Structure formats: structure tokens, C-alpha cells
Amino acid sequence: MEQQAWRSAELADLPALLALEQQAFQGDRLTRRQLRWLIQKGHAQLDLLQIKKDACWQLAGYVLLLFHRGTSLARLYSLAVAPDWQGQGLGQLLLARAETLALAEGCAMVRLEVRQDNLVALKLYQQQGYRRFAQYADYYEDHSPAWRLQKRLRKAPEGVQRHVPYYQQTLPFTCGPAALLMAMGAQQAETRLDQRHELQLWREATSIFMTSGHGGCGPRGLALAAWRRGFAVSLWVNQEGPLFTKGVRSPMKKEVLEKVHQDFSEQLAEQGIEEQRIAISLQDMQQALEAGWIPLILMSSWRMSRSKSPHWVVVTALDAQFVYIHDPEIDEEDQKSCLDTQQVPITHLEFERMACFGQEKLRACVLVGPVRAA
To answer: Which residues form the N-acetyltransferase domain (predicted)?
Structure first.
């Protein structure tokens, strides 16, 4: 084959990329605005394959990967081969490039979506070790479904996994209620996963004040909200007293936080809910998953989105290398979708770093168990 070269896309490549989109795809094409964002600001890698023919370099194809900060997951968002170069094995070459880029970014897994009627692409992916693990309904512009495929780049034994329905938080401050909805939905299929229920939980579990904006939910409020709905709960918090007070300067707000904490503590005592005054370990979490519990974990969002705020996620699985989470927050501005925030793999070491918030090194977990016997 002619001389080949790889390079990262630049803004000057936009006309050629848009032309390739028109040639390679019948629909679901990337727009100029999307491509510009991905090249300039997106947490992504867009690599071009150029081939020299008749002393001229031609754009033969591209591969686009999206990355999820703080995780070991890469998503193959798009792969295109120019019509003049199809049938020459470039699809396999682009796929290998995607895996090389993912490994260079520290990722251990690549996921992608493909049309169920695209038999050529399905054959390519399956030949290269990609396996179906889910279906996504109404994925494409014409409402056709997609197969979800994934490949482990670094092998690890499979561990315990729970089926947890996914729910996206509808407001910036409702990650805790959204995570709790997912956990309750895993334990009881009849649980309503909607905004009305999400806001009901937020009103019950909020600590009223945070560093700014609307109040967030602490572990004690979430535990009580789950208990009131009939679920077993186990609470793990490595600190006594009111939480999230270091970022609050107003004496009045601190006083309110202290009163809310006292009220939550009294309610927990009345219901006989004990606090484990230690941080939950990965071994404890694995045992909880095996016993049928769903862990809600308080994270620092800094390593994922560069924002300094507490954030709740749901642990869905754990194996010898990774902790898998459902993250209720979707950064749509960065071309993310709910496909990027479900079953996200995080290495054990990175998870231990992320599951710790603030200068006080707060670690909190709410285990949501099955519905209690009447």
C-alpha cells in the first residue's frame, strides 16, 4: 500500500472532514459545530489517516475516540473510510489505531455502537474481539436500534455484577436522589424513575445549604429516604458531626447544617439505623454486592469534570481490576450521552482517590438493600 501517515485533526481539516462525513454516511453525520468542539475543547482524540498517492496526500479515513475523565473507558464514537479507499483493509487499521490511542490514554476498555443491519461493520468488530453486551433502542436518526459492543484491552477476571437501571439526574443538584432512584429501581422494579420522585427525594434528603446554590444531599438524608420507602439500608461515614461545613462561611448557614444533622441523627436512631464510622473498603463493597445490596458512593467530581463539588454515583459491579459505576450526570456539552455514563470502569486505585471529598477526606457510602419484610 502507498505511504501512510497519522496525525491529529486541526481546524484547517474541517472542510475535508465534513466532505468525508457526506461521502461515508447516509445519516447521523457529525456537524461542523460538533467537529470544531471536539478538535478544540472536547476530551477526545480525532486522528486522521492520510495516504500518499501520485505525490499527493489524501484523507483516507479518520477515527474519533471520546474519553471519560478519571475512568478507564474509551468510546469509539465514529470511524470513517473514504469511498476511494474502501475494501483495502483500512477499517481494521483504523480500529487498531483507536485501541492504540485508548491504551495511550490509560484506558482498559473500548466501547462502541453499531447499526444492527450493518453486517460488514459487525463482522469487522467481532473479528477484532468486540462482543455485544447491550442494545440501545431508537439510537439513530431513523429510530433504528444499535448494538453496543465492547472489548477489554487489558484482561481481568469478571466479578460480581448487579443489573441497575439507569436514570439521568434532571437538575445540577440532584445527583444523590438520581443515584438513589437507580439503587431502589434495582431492588424493586416498580420504583418510579421520574423527576417527580427525584424531587421528592431531594426535598427529604437535602442538607439545605452547600457552598453555593441549591442544597445537596448527604448520606444520612439519603439513607432515611430509602428507609421510609421500605428498603433496608446500611450507612458508612468516616466522620462524625455535620458534613460539608468547611465550604460554608455564613455562621447562619453553618447553624442550619448543624440542626439538620442533629435532626437526621435523631431520626436514624429512632429507626434503629446504625452508622458504620469507617470508610467502606472494596472488599466490604464486593461482599455487599454479592449479598444483593447496591452501594451509593460519594465522590469528588474534580477528577471527572474538574468541578469542586460532592457527587453521588452508583456502584454496579466490581472485579479484580475495576469498579464499575452508573454516573447520573451527563456532560452533553462534551458530546457525551448516557452511553458514556453507564457501567463506567474505574481502576481500584483511581476509585480510592475519587471516593474521597474535601480537605476533611470525607468518605461516605449508603448501601441500599432489598425491601424489608413487613
So the answer is: 4-154
pTM reported for the whole predicted model:
0.73
- Hey, is 217 helix, strand or coil? strand
Say whether both 142 and 168 belong to one domain: no
261 with 176, same domain?
Answer: yes
CB proximity list for 78: less than 8 A, separation 6 or greater: 30, 62, 63, 64
Pairing of strands 109-115, 231-237: unpaired
For cell 445490596, what's the residue? 293
CB-CB contact of 145 with 136 (8 Å): yes
Cell digits of residue 287: 461482599
Q: Does residue 336 share a domain with residue 206?
A: yes
| Each residue's pLDDT tens digit, 151-194 | 988 655 456 677 899 999 999 899 999 999 999 999 999 999 99
d(CA 45, CA 102): 9
Buried-exposed string 275-307: b where 16+ CB fall within 10 A, e elsewhere? beeebbeeebbbebbeeebbbbbbbbbbbbbee
The last residue of a domain, from among 155, 183, 205: 155
Q: What does the DSSP assignment read for 154-211? A: S-----EE--------SSTT-HHHHHHHHHHHHH-TT---SHHHHHHHHHHHB-S--S
What 35-39 contacts at long range (C-beta under 8 Å, 24+ apart), as own/partner pairs, is: 35/9, 36/11, 37/333, 37/334, 37/335, 38/64, 38/335, 39/9, 39/10, 39/11, 39/13, 39/14
Rounded to whole angstroms, the Cα distance separating 75 from 359 reads 33
